[in-house]
Amino acid sequence: MELILAIFIGLLYASGVYLILRRSIVKVILGVFVLSNATNLIIFLSGGIKRSGAGFIPAGAEKVDPATISDPLPQALILTAIVIGLGIAAYILALKYRYFEITETHDLDQLSKTDQK
Amino acid sequence: MIKYLPLLIGILFLSGLMVSLIYPFLKKKLGWVLSLVPLAVFILLFTVLGDLKPKSLQILPSGFELLEKISFTFRIDGLSLVFGLLISGIGFLIVLYATWYMKKYERQGHFFTYFMLFMAAMTGLVFSDNIMVLFIFWELTSVTSFLLIGFNHQLEKSRQAALQSLLITGFGGLCLLFAAILMGQIAGTYQLSEMISQNIDFVNNPRYLLIFILVLIAVLTKSAQFPFHFWLPGAMEAPTPVSAYLHSATMVNAGVFLLLRMHPLLGDTLEWKYSLILSGVITMFIGAFFSMGQKDLKRILAFTTISALGTMVLLIGIGTPLSMEATLVFFIVHGLYKGGLFMVAGIIDKSTGTRDITVLSKLWKHLPVTTIFAILALISMAGLPPMLGFVGKELVYVAKIQLPGLSWIILPLGVGANIMMVAISLTLFFEVFNPWSKKPDVSIQHKEKDFPWYFLLGPGVLALAGLLLGLAPEILNTLIANALYVTKNELVDVNLLLWHGFNEVLMLSIFAIALGVTVFILRKPVTKFICSIINWLDNFHLPTFFMTVMNFYLKNAAKNTQRIQHGYHRFYLMTFFITTLVIISFQINWYLGDLVPFNGFTPINTNIVILVIVASLAIIFAVFSKSRLSAILAMGVVGYAIGLIYLLYGAIDLTITQLLAETVIMLLFVMVIYYLPKFALLSSRKSRARDIIISLSVGFFITIVVLHANTVNFYEPVSNFYAENSVIKAHGRNIVNVILVDFRALDTFGEITVLTLAAVGVFSLFRFTVKKEKNNINK
Amino acid sequence: MRNIILEKIVSLFLKVMLIFAIYLLLRGHNNPGGGFIAAIIASTGFVFYAIIYGTKKVEKMLHLSTHQWMGIGLLLVLISTLLPLFFSKEIQTGLWIPSDFPVLGLLSLGTPLLFDTGVFVTVSGVILTIILSIMEVLEWN
Question: Any CB–CB contact under 8 A between A79 and chain B?
Answer without folding.
Answer: yes
